[in-house]
Amino acid sequence: MTLRKRKGMLIKNTNLNLVSIEMTTRTITLAPGDEKLITAEEVLDETLRDYLQVRGVSIVRPTSDEEEAELRERLA
Predict the structure, then answer these.
(1) Total Cβ atoms within 10 A of residue 14
(2) CB 23 within 8 A of CB 47
(3) 7-43, pLDDT tens digit by residue?
(4) What kind and span of H or E run contains 61?
(5) Residue 59: HSE in the Cβ half-sphere, 13 Å Cα cutoff
(6) Would residue 33 be called left, alpha or beta, if left means φ above 0 and alpha means ψ between -120 and 50 degrees?
(7) Which residues pair with 13 in a beta bridge?
(8) Phi, psi of 39 (to 5 degrees)
(9) What is the C-alpha R_g of the chain?
(10) N or C: which end of the chain has fewer CB within 10 A?
(11) Phi, psi (5° rounding) for residue 10?
(12) Nearest CA among 50, 66, 52 for reference residue 11
């Protein structure tokens, strides 16, 4: 069995209102149409997953390896 490498994601606020997501690692605030990178671990955050369920934010695409490395460096 091959282990799959988990990747971060680019998320987007698809609402007409400001969205503030208080995750265990950090708080992300997105204006309508804003996009933000999140780490692979943050993808599993329960609060973020709640926003995804009600379409408060949407996943746009997985992060590239370069984006993931840059994000981890910035958050360290």
Answers:
(1) 14
(2) yes
(3) 899 999 998 999 999 999 999 999 999 999 999 999 9
(4) strand 57-62
(5) 17
(6) left
(7) 57
(8) -75, 170
(9) 12
(10) N
(11) -100, 120
(12) 52
